[in-house]
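Usage

Read records sequentially. Each one opens with the input sequence:
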Amino acid sequence: MEILGLAIVVVLLILGLVFVIKFVALKKPSTLKKDVVESQVASNYLSTYLSTSVQECSGLSTTELLQDCAAQGGITCQDGETSCEKPREVAAFIFNQTFDQWKWKYEMSAFLGERSSLFTLGTACPGQKRSKTFPLPTRAGTLYVKLDICG
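and closes with the structure output:
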């Protein structure tokens, strides 16, 4: 009789372990973590991009070049590119070395108001996306730099 009781306890322990393994150990990872990571990636990339110093433009940051471009300034870099061309080139280089290599879909844009686009890289996200927008003050109004990561 004691052996039968012990066998029942063992069977119940095995059933409990099966449920634990099925519902806890084999559970798919949360998409919330993925969403937070992608949102953080967008924020970090824009922050890095905007603080990047461009040596060909006397060490000015891409933020300063974008602000000059929005105000229709006259900065011309040592390689002959203007303050409107250089930020796009820097962004294209950064994304070519990262998101394009990883085959991540994205759209980055810099625009002044709703109508005046300075540049756009990548393709528009048709479905879900994680976005980050940085506003930059300029003499011509607020310039927005936006990065959408599709997914």
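Summary fields computed downstream for this record:
- Helices lie at 2-25, 31-51, 62-70, 86-97, 99-102.
- The domain at 30-150 is CATH 3.30.1140 (Ribosomal protein S3 C-terminal domain).
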